[in-house]
């Protein structure tokens, strides 16, 4: 006697296997998306720090005199605090007025080291925190005496 019983549909094991495969693929997609968002945020913050650094560097080179920078060094005004380390604040104010002699306790701040020789060697460092990791962005520039 022949077994003429016809199976229609999927068995429970087939459904469970397909759900497992789908779940694994979905979880991988979510992990990729979370990592993508972290990378976007990291790039945004690093770009913001580099833009701020570039703006401060250009302001010190082209809009500040040799004597003004020496005055910063003599008064020990070498820090820019987190609240002043924003592009809008830097654009609205004279850069020399943003420096203070009090070391900030916040996570984000800028330090200016001035080495005086025949020309000024300026070292700018932004100490920032991105994705719970401390980052230091550094820039070295030289300024000749004004004629």
Compact description:
The protein is of the alpha+beta class. It has 4 helices and 4 strands, in the order ααβααβββ.
Any descriptors?
147 residues; alpha+beta; Prepilin-type N-terminal cleavage/methylation domain-containing protein; N_methyl_site; membrane; transmembrane; transmembrane helix
Shape: rod-shaped
Arithmetic mean of pLDDT: 89
Q: How many whole angstroms does the radius of gyration measure? A: 29 Å
In terms of structural class, how would the helical and strand content be classed? Answer: alpha+beta
Q: Could you give the order of the helices and strands? A: HHEHHEEE
Largest sheet: 4 strands, antiparallel
Uncertain spans: none
InterPro entries: N_methyl_site (IPR012902)
Protein name: Prepilin-type N-terminal cleavage/methylation domain-containing protein
Transmembrane segments: 12-32
Keywords: Membrane, Transmembrane, Transmembrane helix
């Amino acid at each position: 006697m022949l077994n003429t019983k016809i199976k229609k549909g999927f068995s429970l094991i087939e459904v469970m296997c397909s759900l497992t495969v789908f779940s694994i693929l979905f979880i991988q997609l979510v992990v990729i998306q979370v990592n993508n968002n972290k990378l976007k945020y990291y790039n945004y913050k690093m770009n913001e720090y580099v833009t701020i650094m570039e703006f401060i560097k250009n302001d010190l080179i082209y809009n500040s005199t040799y004597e003004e920078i020496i005055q910063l060094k003599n008064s020990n005004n070498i820090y820019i605090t987190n609240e002043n380390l924003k592009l809008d604040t830097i654009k609205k104010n004279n850069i020399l007025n943003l420096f203070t002699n009090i070391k900030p306790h916040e996570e984000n701040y800028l330090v200016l080291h001035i080495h005086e020789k025949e020309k000024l060697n300026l070292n700018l460092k932004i100490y920032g925190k991105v994705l719970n990791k401390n980052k230091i962005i550094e820039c070295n520039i030289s300024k000749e005496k004004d004629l």
